[in-house]
Amino acid sequence: MKKIIVALVMLFMLNGCVDSSEVERLESEKQELQSKIDELERHAQEAEQHFSEVKSQTEELENEVQKLKSSVNDFGYMNWRSVVPDVESNTSHVSSNLDDLKMKLDELESDIDELQNP
To answer: How confident is the model at residue 5 (pLDDT cuts 50, 70, 90)?
Structure first.
């Protein structure tokens, strides 16, 4: 986009059709567009970071769910009094990770909204 604007300005200048106020207007427009591009790139980087965090927390949550399933399976052949603390602990981890994941998803949704509606 930047190259196109510069080329148009040069073309008009060569033809003598552009006065200095037109050049200034085009330069100002170019700067505004560059600012918008920079802002969108920043939002895209934030969205990528939040996506990576969500992906990581999803994997952690899956691991915690597997631990919880394993603890529940222990009810079948172990004394329930020794299994319950593990189940409670794993349930707490799953709940905490789920809350973190929900928060990151909200942040990611906000970033996506900002990208779609700058």
So the answer is: low
For range 22-33, the mean pLDDT: 86
| Cβ 111 vs Cβ 39: under 8 Å | no
Instruction: Give the pLDDT band of residue 118 (cuts 50, 70, 90).
Output: low
pTM, full prediction: 0.51
Provide the token pair at 28. Answer: 């100002």
Q: Percent helix, strand, coil in the chain (nearest 5)?
A: 90, 0, 10
Cα torsion through 9, 25, 115, 50, rounded to 10: 80
CB 57 within 8 A of CB 83: no
Closest CA to 46 of 102, 100, 109: 109
